[in-house]
Amino acid sequence: MNGRSWAGVVRLVLLAALVALFAVGVATGVTPGVDEVRGWVDAAGPAAPLVFVAVCAAGSSVLVPKPVLSVLGGVVFGPWLGAGVVVAGVTLGALVAFALSRGLGRDAARPAEGRLARVDRLLERRGFAAVVALRLLPVVPFGLVNYTAGLTGVRVGLFAAGTALGVVPATVVYTTTGASLTTMTTGQWLLAGAAVALPALVGFAVLRVRRAR
């Protein structure tokens, strides 16, 4: 292994360590609470939506679960404005994570040949549908997709567009839930669950079709 290869491995290990650090930080509660974020937003006045975009961007880049950010957006801004600022914020955060992963780990993770190399080239050309499908699946961690995508050949523009489109359905459901958290009936909770499940089924179907092709 030459010096350049070793440098790539070192950067990849550094990336893994950073992601692990972020995960531990979130798991141990080193994240702001609802009251703290509400205080930042109230203090910002007219610039509050921009402040929340920054909060979402920072949170999603360090692996704060997207449903948490979405519900918080609904609590603070209501369903529609909340959805807008959350989509903008998590897309920006996804690009930060993607850029970090691409810069530190892409060279070491790039497959040279074989099936993985073909998949990598396919993502480079047609990654939009795959990103949208993954964003529609609630069981796939948002942050994991961000950092993993940076290691693949998917183009940054396709990644950004696929993220912004794919997160909309679940985000609207979560912000609506956040805005009505204390007043939702059992029927509304069931409807919210169905609204999350339907896009997930669409995402699963898209991935199956892509895999079959």
Automatic annotation (TrEMBL):
The portions of this protein that span the membrane are 43-64, 76-100, 128-149, 156-177, 189-207
Short name of one Pfam family = VTT_dom
Where is the protein situated, by its record's location annotation? Cell membrane
The organism's superkingdom is given as Bacteria
> What residues does the VTT domain cover?
64-179
The UniProt entry lists membrane topology as: Multi-pass membrane protein
Q: In this entry, which stretches build a coiled coil? A: none
Which UniProt keywords are given for this protein, alphabetically ordered?
Cell membrane, Membrane, Transmembrane, Transmembrane helix
Main location class: membrane
Question: Which family is this sequence assigned to?
Answer: Belongs to the TVP38/TMEM64 family.
What protein name is recorded for this chain?
Answer: TVP38/TMEM64 family membrane protein
Species in which this protein is naturally found: Saccharothrix xinjiangensis
